[in-house]
Design goal:
CATH topology of the largest domain: Rossmann fold
Order of helices and strands: HHHHHHEHEEHEHHHEHEEEHEHEE
Strand content: 15-25%
CATH class of the largest domain: Alpha Beta
Distance between the termini: 55 Å
Shape: elongated
Largest sheet: 7 strands, mixed
Number of domains: 3
Strand order of the largest sheet: 7-6-5-8-9-11-10
CATH architecture of the largest domain: 3-Layer(aba) Sandwich
CATH superfamily of the largest domain: Vaccinia Virus protein VP39
Helix content: 25-40%
Structural class: alpha/beta
Number of strands: 11
Length: 399
């Protein structure tokens, strides 16, 4: 942006300084249509003033669902991200020893943080984008970066563990890796981040959003008193509960069981006896990491060495993958022990909240599932809930 401002631009800036945010909204149309560069400048200026005065700002409880935004609303979304940026920079700057330290920003669309840091005097701030789920940091030397900042980027990576390893390669000893991930649908839990990073601590900047619930909630197989003792997470704009989601994948297994025959393995079966009733016309075998009266084999889905290649006609993996540290390894093992032409019946949750048993590490989008299941010759993925904010997915896969 040219540092020489026109008289109109200077006037708008003076008004902005005097009247704060109200001037931005009052003259939003003028700024957006005639001075698009000034709009970004004013945004950055507001943030810098807040940071330099160390003013603490609050975040509105108003529900904000990014999935409702269209592509042209990205500027609005960037503006609503200001509270995150302020708190992030407030946290980051005390960890920097000087204005010449090298800062790497990963994948934040227009690089707003980099622009702000540069205007604050950190001239060594650079931006690297995310392309096709990949981040290319090969041009950076080992131990060359003081700070890596990644806001809303990790969930877009095909292999986050590989990228995290690369971050540690280019970070200087004592360097800071600062990551912000969305918690809608619980994409990354603190446990999964610790396994990826092995860092010092996790800062929880989560926001509780309001949900408009239907007057009557669809509860299936749950007594009201039992529901009171549990924390049920409701998805916005839909009357399905966690119980309704559970019912939906039971219906899925019920329909699929009619088409199955031969040898069936249920991995992660736990104490759930319903699939046995559905698959009792087959040779039904249960497996879980812990032994109980309903479990035939104790084992880990990530390492099923007790089974030979091509052993099963059908494998059920229902609500399991989110609980294993390495879902790619689990799917590889499932593929190995499936017979040619065999079928995998897979269900995974998305937006039903965290549920630790034993740990809740991952959430999968449709795009992520396609990558995870790419070895299979046929893959049919269906969502449960609404397409813009699914509660979970069912995947029917043929080897």
């Amino acid at each position: 942006m040219n540092n020489e401002l026109s008289p109109v631009e200077e006037l708008l800036i003076k008004l902005y300084i005097q009247h704060g945010d109200s001037i931005y909204f009052q003259y939003a149309e003028v700024i957006e249509s005639k001075f698009p560069e000034l709009k970004e400048y004013l945004n950055r200026m507001r943030i810098i003033r807040i940071i330099e005065s160390n003013k603490q700002i609050s975040i509105d409880d108003k529900p904000y669902y990014p999935y409702k935004e269209e592509e042209e609303d990205l500027d609005l979304r960037a503006f609503e991200a200001i509270p995150y940026i302020v708190r992030s920079i407030n946290y980051i700057t005390p960890h920097l020893n000087g204005r010449k330290e090298k800062i790497l920003n990963i994948g934040t669309r227009k690089g707003l943080e980099v622009s702000i840091m540069k205007e604050m005097g950190y001239m060594n701030a650079v931006d690297v984008g995310i392309n096709d789920g990949q981040v290319d940091t090969s041009s950076f030397k080992d131990e060359s970066i003081n700070l890596i900042y990644c806001r809303r980027g990790l969930e877009h990576l095909k292999n986050p563990k590989k990228v995290i390893d690369e971050f540690f390669r280019i970070l200087k000893p004592g360097g800071l890796l600062f990551i912000i991930v969305p918690i809608i649908g619980a994409f990354k839990s603190a446990d999964s981040l610790k396994r990826l990073i092995n860092g010092d601590r996790i800062l929880d900047y989560s926001i509780k959003m309001g949900h408009n619930l239907l007057p009557e909630i669809w509860m299936i197989g749950e007594e009201k008193e039992e529901m009171k003792r549990r924390e049920v997470v409701y998805s916005p704009d839909i009357g399905l509960t966690v119980s309704a989601y559970r019912y939906s994948f039971i219906e899925y297994l019920k329909e699929e069981s009619k088409l199955c025959e031969g040898k069936v393995l249920d991995v992660g079966a736990g104490g759930w006896v319903l699939p046995w009733r559905l698959f009792r016309h087959c040779e039904y075998i249960t497996m879980d990491v812990e032994k109980n009266e309903n479990i035939d084999v104790v084992g880990d889905v990530q390492d099923m060495h007790m089974f030979e290649d091509s052993s099963f006609d059908v494998i059920i993996c229902s609500e399991v993958l989110e609980h294993v540290p390495s879902p790619h390894r689990a799917i590889s093992e499932i593929y190995r022990i499936l017979k040619p032409g065999g079928k995998l019946l897979l269900t995974v949750p998305f937006d039903i909240g965290l549920h630790d048993c034993p740990g809740d590490y991952w959430r999968f989008t449709e795009q992520g599932l396609k990558i995870l299941l790419e070895e299979f010759s046929e893959v049919e993925i269906k969502f449960k809930g609404i397409d813009s904010k699914p509660l979970g997915y069912t995947c029917t896969c043929r080897k």
